Amino acid sequence: MIARNFAILVGAFICFAQALVMPASVQAGKLKVAMLIPGHIDDGGFMEAGYKGLLMIRDKLGADIAYIDKIKPKKDLLSASLRQLAAGGPDLIIAHGGQNSKAMVAVAPEFPDIKFVVVQGNVRGSNLSSYEVLQEQSAWLAGAAAGLLTKTNVVGHISGIRVRPGLKGRGAFFNGLMHTNRNAKYLTTFAGDQDDNELSYGVASAQIDAGADIIFTMLNAGRVGAIKAMREKKVHQIGNVRDWYPVAPDVFIASAMANVSMAGFHAANDVQSGAWKPGVINKIGLENGDAVRLALAPGVPQDIRAKLEKLREALASGKTEVSVKYDGPEFKHQAGK
């Protein structure tokens, strides 16, 4: 009897010890993941990619998911939405986009038992990490391609709001452009809204009237207006996040692909496996071709493809570094004021 009781006590102790070292999500059972999306899940761009990442988390990891979208990128609104998601008791909350960073830094300490992640962020804390797909690598290659392909020697860039990923993408594109064509004129605009098609149409039209024959767009739902303007004026666009050539083959000459859906999925997978760590900025770059690459339209000449492949290899190996610095002028026009 004494031996039997001792065995029971030992078994209980082993189970208790195992529970202490097991990931919290495993202890609780099914992984629960919530996502904050400060935009529209069907914008055809960055926000939709985040939502697709959440669906991957559900389908591939078997997680229960929840999300809030259509939130304007204002700290108080984002913070309230994060608290609403936290009330559901998830294991992990993912905020999709660097515009969430300040709200996450404020809210995460209020819920120490929940893990928080910012996609395309640069923030960390005791229960907060960032996962960043290095879109600046594909943006740099896109700039290099624009420098080789422009006929007018005027190249444009249009983005919406001034968040860190957008600023990095703008700078990387510029430096890639200068790498292959130092004589090119650069027109860059932050229009103030990622989703306003009337605005993006006006901005794109103004840049085209100023001579741009290739424009790199970092927009969400507002990309439709830019496509319309470029189709009318018969100039080319370089897209971002996904490959846009199949959507509008008459307009897109390339896409700086940065599959940001991978960031949220990697974070959830790390939580489920127990590999997740707080206070870390995790980077995913060209070494993962499913996450970061430059997609070219079929009509891009083979000699230019060969030059860009050598540049890609130099970036991937570390021989060439991506600079994201840009301190030059910005394109002024009525539509973007």
Characterize this entry briefly.
The protein has eleven helices and twelve strands. With 337 residues, the chain is an alpha/beta fold.
How many structural domains? 2
CATH fold node name of the largest domain: Rossmann fold
Low-confidence spans: 1-28
Kindly, what is the distance between the CA atoms of the first and last residues, rounded to a whole number of angstroms? 84 Å
Level-2 CATH architecture of the largest domain: 3-Layer(aba) Sandwich
Largest sheet: 6 strands, parallel
What is the fold's blueprint, element by element?
Elements: H1 2-21, H2 24-28, E1 32-36, H3 46-61, E2 64-68, H4 75-86, E3 92-96, H5 101-107, E4 115-119, E5 128-133, H6 135-149, E6 154-159, H7 164-180, E7 185-190, H8 197-209, E8 214-218, H9 223-233, E9 236-241, E10 252-258, H10 261-273, E11 281-284, E12 292-296, H11 302-317
Parallel strand pairs: 1-2, 1-3, 3-4, 4-5, 5-11, 6-7, 6-8, 8-9, 9-10
Antiparallel strand pairs: 10-12
Helix pairs in contact: 3-10, 4-5, 6-7, 6-11, 8-9
